[in-house]
Predict the structure.
Amino acid sequence: MNKLLASVTLAVSILFSSATFAAEKTITLAVNNMYCADCPFLVRKSLEAVPGVSKAVVSYKEKTAVVTYDDTRTDVTALTRATTEAGYPSAPRS
Ligand SMILES: [Cu+2]
């Protein structure tokens, strides 16, 4: 009984952790070419269109995009490509 309970608990915790922390990552990109207050909107839309991106917060003032994404579905290259194709070349901020 204890053994069964332990394996059920283990299974549930594995299920839970993969669902809750599905390899979610956050990265800050330095974004070029944002010259007016409408630009951040376009940058955000381009990032949110990438499958796997759950959140993109773009700052016109800071010239950055903070992107939350599932790294099993997308990667940094896809994110920078998306903004670049929208007219805003970006790179991970060091
Ligand atoms: Cu603009």
User: Anything to note?
Assistant: The beta strands are 24-31, 53-59, 64-70, 90-92.
